[in-house]
Amino acid sequence: MMGPGWGMGWEMGMGGGVWVIVGLLVIVGVAVYYFTKNKNNSYNGSNNSQQVPGKDALEIAKNRLAKGEITTEEFEEIKKALL
Protein backbone atom coordinates (compact mmCIF):
# COMPACT_ATOMS: atom_id res chain seq x y z
CA MET A 1 0.00 0.00 0.00
CA MET A 2 1.05 3.53 -0.65
CA GLY A 3 -0.15 4.93 2.66
CA PRO A 4 -2.19 8.03 3.39
CA GLY A 5 -2.17 11.20 1.30
CA TRP A 6 -2.71 10.56 -2.42
CA GLY A 7 -0.06 7.90 -2.68
CA MET A 8 2.87 10.04 -1.50
CA GLY A 9 3.09 8.68 2.01
CA TRP A 10 5.79 9.90 4.35
CA GLU A 11 8.57 9.71 1.75
CA MET A 12 7.84 13.26 0.56
CA GLY A 13 7.99 14.84 3.99
CA MET A 14 4.80 16.72 4.67
CA GLY A 15 3.18 15.83 1.39
CA GLY A 16 1.98 18.71 -0.76
CA GLY A 17 2.61 21.31 1.94
CA VAL A 18 6.31 21.38 1.18
CA TRP A 19 5.64 22.31 -2.43
CA VAL A 20 3.37 25.16 -1.33
CA ILE A 21 6.15 26.57 0.85
CA VAL A 22 8.72 26.17 -1.93
CA GLY A 23 6.37 27.91 -4.36
CA LEU A 24 5.82 30.80 -1.97
CA LEU A 25 9.57 31.19 -1.46
CA VAL A 26 10.09 31.33 -5.22
CA ILE A 27 7.37 33.98 -5.59
CA VAL A 28 8.85 36.06 -2.77
CA GLY A 29 12.32 35.74 -4.31
CA VAL A 30 11.09 36.91 -7.72
CA ALA A 31 9.24 39.84 -6.12
CA VAL A 32 12.33 40.92 -4.16
CA TYR A 33 14.46 40.74 -7.32
CA TYR A 34 11.91 42.74 -9.34
CA PHE A 35 11.56 45.53 -6.76
CA THR A 36 15.29 45.69 -6.12
CA LYS A 37 16.02 45.98 -9.83
CA ASN A 38 13.46 48.79 -10.27
CA LYS A 39 14.66 50.57 -7.14
CA ASN A 40 18.23 50.66 -8.48
CA ASN A 41 17.04 52.16 -11.76
CA SER A 42 15.31 55.02 -9.96
CA TYR A 43 18.44 55.90 -7.94
CA ASN A 44 20.70 56.51 -10.93
CA GLY A 45 18.61 59.48 -12.02
CA SER A 46 16.96 57.92 -15.02
CA ASN A 47 13.23 58.34 -14.93
CA ASN A 48 12.35 57.89 -18.59
CA SER A 49 8.65 58.59 -18.17
CA GLN A 50 9.30 62.21 -17.11
CA GLN A 51 12.34 63.11 -19.22
CA VAL A 52 12.09 65.24 -22.30
CA PRO A 53 14.49 64.00 -24.97
CA GLY A 54 17.27 66.52 -25.61
CA LYS A 55 16.60 68.52 -22.46
CA ASP A 56 19.58 67.12 -20.57
CA ALA A 57 21.80 67.36 -23.63
CA LEU A 58 20.87 71.02 -24.05
CA GLU A 59 21.75 71.69 -20.41
CA ILE A 60 25.11 69.97 -20.93
CA ALA A 61 25.72 72.12 -24.02
CA LYS A 62 24.84 75.27 -22.05
CA ASN A 63 27.28 74.27 -19.31
CA ARG A 64 30.01 73.56 -21.87
CA LEU A 65 29.41 76.98 -23.46
CA ALA A 66 29.59 78.66 -20.06
CA LYS A 67 32.89 76.89 -19.29
CA GLY A 68 34.31 77.90 -22.65
CA GLU A 69 34.65 74.33 -23.91
CA ILE A 70 32.63 75.09 -27.07
CA THR A 71 32.04 78.22 -29.11
CA THR A 72 28.74 79.99 -29.62
CA GLU A 73 28.53 78.61 -33.16
CA GLU A 74 29.04 75.06 -31.91
CA PHE A 75 26.36 75.64 -29.27
CA GLU A 76 23.90 76.84 -31.91
CA GLU A 77 24.59 73.75 -34.05
CA ILE A 78 24.00 71.46 -31.04
CA LYS A 79 20.82 73.36 -30.20
CA LYS A 80 19.47 72.98 -33.76
CA ALA A 81 20.26 69.28 -33.76
CA LEU A 82 18.48 68.72 -30.44
CA LEU A 83 15.39 70.82 -31.08
From TrEMBL:
Instruction: Name any one Pfam family assigned in the record.
Output: SHOCT
> What keywords are annotated for this sequence in UniProt?
Membrane, Transmembrane, Transmembrane helix
Ranges for domain SHOCT come to 56-83
The portions of this protein that span the membrane are 12-35
Out of the domains of life, which is the source? Answer: Bacteria
Indicate yes or no for the key word Membrane.
yes
The protein here is known as: SHOCT domain-containing protein
Species this protein is from: Planococcus antarcticus DSM 14505
